[in-house]
Amino acid sequence: MPIKKALNISIEHVSILDENGKFDEKLGKNLIPDEDVVRLYEHIILCRHLDEVAFKLQRSGRMGTYPENRGQEATSVGAVYALEGKDWLVPCYRENAGLYLRGLPIEYVLLHWMGDERGNQIPEDLHITPIAIPIGTQMLHATGLAWASKYRGDGGISCTFFGDGATSEGDFHEAANFASNLDLPVIFLCQNNGWAISVPSSIQSSAPTFAQRGVAYGMHSVQCDGNDLFAMVKVVREAAERARKENRPTFIEAITYRLGDHTTADDARRYRDADTVEAWTKKDPLIRLRKYLDDRKLWDDKREKAALANAKEAVSAAVKRAEEIEPPKTEAMFNSMYETLHDELILQRETMRTSSIGQNPSEIDPAVSLHAQDTTD
Amino acid sequence: MANLTLVQAINLALIQEMEEDDRIILLGEDVGKNGGVFRVTEGLWQRFGGDRVVDSPLAESGILGTSIGLAMAGLRPIPEIQFEGFLGPAYDQICTHAARMRTRTRGAYTVPLTIRVPVGGGIHAPELHSDSPETIYTHTPGLKVVMPASPYDAKGLLISAIRDPDPVIFFEPKRIYRAFREEVPEDEYTIPIGEARVVQEGEQITMVSWGASVIQCMNAIENCNHSVELIDLRTIAPMDMQAIEQSVKKTGRCVVVHEAPKTLGLGAEIASRIMEHCFLHLEAPVQRVAGFDTIMPYYKLELDYMPDAARITKAVEEVSAY
């Protein structure tokens, strides 16, 4: 029996605006209108500023642990720009820039990290699922949401964001397997930022690319420069078309870098060397976008200054809204547990100050004193 | 009215609800063409087609995780986990997402899904096909947990579960899937989640149970000289404490019977709540007849593990002699 080749695979890497600001006219032509490049650049400036402010809020005790997005903004911004408003965004926690572009008010994310569930109370028409804390689990929700879109025939698709580390989770496998075998319109957007807290991507995969993981599920898979806004728009747009027209999923490996610590609770100097970080700092999406705009006379220092001033104003207003929201009432922790609360929960809510722990009999609410009698008769 | 087994009653409920509500999608391992390993979904794939009765890949976390996405989008998925022993991989999705979604988003997102799971021992099944993990899910805020003990209740409770706006785990005691038949109305009806059923009234001892153990309790009561009031909880979370309280205040004695291991089994919670609500009415300590704190043994010993009429009768005698 002759031995034949069962499968030949190759993975394309897409780069349009490279780290030196060199632009591939052929690939990049008409991809993003000038005014939109300007708008997206301004948007990233805003998100970058927000990161700085959020970091300071945490350090000054005004906010809890916060994961910086610094350096990765182009990945989610390019993706969200390429999608439609009816498409689901199913994030983990490092996609603020993309979520704000969709229209999520900044204070929602701030509230989340300020320990307030109202930060997850996402306005309905945004089609954004709440930040997912466990790694990789949200990919299955994206798959189910895409399934619902297909079932209803509403033309929507899902794009789920996750990191290189999340591809080690079983839920990645299950989501990719469901999406491909059931023909579901999902975009799996892997943001390979080099690190899962302190663990380098080489511990997550020893294969030459993460993109080839998608090939194993029979889905189109592609790698691109995640710090290249144009490459992101191109690959996500193609993936979205594939999803919308053929109900086929796509795996995208966007190569980027986490310039900041994992979160404010982390110190990346413990496990990575400054030279590598320095090298990646030069690949920052903002630097190359500025060059792109300068080369086309679309930008100048004056506009840069104005953009930063606008960013400061917007962020400071959002911080104000987040900090000035009325404190949550204690009973809020009970009230959304179910649509209709059961008796025991109501009892716990009504007696939380008056029975067992920290009790003060004088505070017993007459409306619930029935229970107090019951337990003593 | 038709004389149906528990399996048939569930099948009928699924058909009737699916006819009425095209948001309902069934998914799971072997639920399609094969009709499920217990034939609970028999004929549904043929009737509703492969878009609504879906043979999923073999992946429990995937079944639950995609169901959560379907539910968040406004559909009404009914995932089946083939045996309770395989809930483990789905645990993460159930407890870290389905149970929490409504409250962590302060109501912006809900997860109305009904997770069907055959549960419990007594059918000589292989390892991990006979467990009783209801406590784990009852201990997880945000879920509802239901376990019917009769065909009539199964139909009415399943319809309630499907229409419920929150995630419900619907445990189906496989030992009584086909053990007996009961008159089940053809028309749709609901049995409210959270309401226990007094199977039989009595004056001297309250017996609380659920699932297939209810049948063991009935067997014990049949040959018993005491007047026993048997309460079938039907819903484990939320528990109908009012029904228990009312009965125990009358009898002053209580025996709780469940298949799950004794330690931190629901019996512990029930006994504790009886202490809170009925302490001065008690004539004897609450007695538990439960599975042991061992793993569920392979089937040669499973009947030694599960509460049976003899053990239940002994508890009744001890409680009444106290």
Describe this structure as you would to a colleague.
- The complex is a heterodimer of chains A (377) and B (322).
- Chain A contains 16 helices and 8 strands.
- Chain A has a 6-stranded parallel beta sheet with strand order 1-7-8-4-3-2, with helices on both faces. In chain A, strands 5-6 form a two-stranded antiparallel sheet.
- Chain A has 377 residues and is an alpha/beta fold.
- Chain B folds into 2 domains: 2-184, Rossmann fold; 197-321, Rossmann fold (3-Layer(aba) Sandwich).
- In chain B, 36% of the residues lie in helices and 20% in strands.
- In chain B, the strands form 4 sheets. Chain B has a 5-stranded mixed beta sheet, with helices on both faces.
- In chain B, helix 8 packs across helix 12 (309-321).
- The mean pLDDT of chain B is 97.
Topology:
The complex is a heterodimer of chains A (377) and B (322).
Chain A: E1 13-14, H1 25-28, H2 34-59, H3 73-82, E2 88-90, H4 96-102, H5 106-113, H6 138-152, E3 158-163, H7 170-181, E4 186-192, E5 195-196, E6 199-200, H8 201-204, H9 212-215, E7 220-225, H10 229-246, E8 250-255, H11 274-281, H12 285-295, H13 301-324, H14 332-335, H15 343-351, H16 369-376
Parallel strand pairs in A: 1-7, 2-3, 3-4, 4-8, 7-8
Antiparallel strand pairs in A: 5-6
Chain B: E1 2-4, H1 6-20, E2 24-28, H2 44-48, E3 53-55, H3 60-72, E4 76-80, H4 88-98, H5 101-104, E5 114-119, H6 134-138, E6 144-146, H7 151-163, E7 168-173, E8 182-184, E9 197-200, E10 205-209, H8 213-222, E11 228-232, E12 235-237, H9 241-251, E13 254-261, H10 266-278, E14 287-291, H11 302-305, H12 309-321
Parallel strand pairs in B: 2-3, 2-4, 5-7, 6-7, 10-11, 10-13, 13-14
Antiparallel strand pairs in B: 1-8, 6-12, 9-11
Helix pairs in contact in B: 1-7, 3-4, 8-12, 9-10
